[in-house]
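#struct-pred
JK: can someone run the complex with zinc ion? inputs below
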Amino acid sequence: MTGERNSSKKATKPGGGRRRSGKAPAPSVDVQAFVVRSTDYRDSDRIVTLITNALGKVSVIARGARKAKRRQAGCLAPYSMLKVRLSGRVGHNRLWHLGDCRTIEAYPNIQASLPKLALAGYFSEVCRDSVAEHHPEPEVFQLLRQSFQLMQTGTPTRAMVRAFEMTLLRILGLAPNVTHCVGTIDQACGALLGPIVSGGETEPTGYSTPEQSGSADVRPYGFSTARGGLLCPDCARREPCIPLDDQAILAFQSIDRLSMAEAATMRPDLPETVNGQLRVALLDRILDLVGHPLKSVLFIEKLKLDKMKANMEQSDEGHKGANAPSQQAGQVPISTDGAPSDDTDDTERPPSSQGGAS
Ligand SMILES: [Zn+2]
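RT: done, structure tokens with the ligand placed:
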């Protein structure tokens, strides 16, 4: 709504003309943007949802965007940072009109990798569906940009994906409390949780697998979306929650202290058993926020299933994998230990941003 005022680069045309009926040119504004949804409209137009640095999430109409000759057409692909010129909101839907459009930061390594595309789709869809339109959220824009940059330069890790989710929730004022119990059965509990305490860094590398620790699958703690954070064992027994073990509590506290970039370099990465717990908890929080299933999550699940199936078939044939099918140069194998592997859960699908064409 107040978008224009916040735009980083103000329009060249002071325009002023408030009334569309008049001759005065509509005011325009230049912004940086990511396409997070694109839908065909009428014969040759496209309605595109953008996450911008200055205006937040906005919907724009791209006239003639489906005609190949228009420069816009090639420019409106997802997973590239664009510079676009928007002018006067038009029509009864009050859509911005898309003018000039060009790519200013591309991420070819994402485009070249299905797991990365899936993850980029997840990041895009979560950002798109967790923010309101016309509400400037420059930090969300930067988070999305940083996630793409990290995927361009490296292999996404489980910790990075969890840090993305935690950071987004923090930006939106919904960060889960991971240090004190949020249980409120009789009264606010507030018990200090886990091995944090004393400022003495808890080693993110200190995770042990259930086998190592000898603790089969003991999950006395909990995560409560309704309460907005972690539960101590006492409260977890009495409140609805997602069960967590002490390793997950430790991981939550570690991730909470890291930026996404820091988490991306955390070694070793979160163990799968720990990551799975955080993923379920954070996804529950995110789904509660967006209020509907995320297509990108379903897509990632499908990738995982396909991969499992392929693995089973491969082992059945006793192949020693001279040629891993989906592994081309620059691609992230869905299952490498790195991260997006089976971690594919983290990934999400591209469709969210591409949407469109249907
Ligand atoms: Zn408690």
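RT: quick notes.
DSSP finds 13 helices and nine strands in the chain.
Residues 181, 183, 189, 191, 231-232, 234-235 surround zinc ion (CB under 6 Å).
JK: thanks, will look after standup
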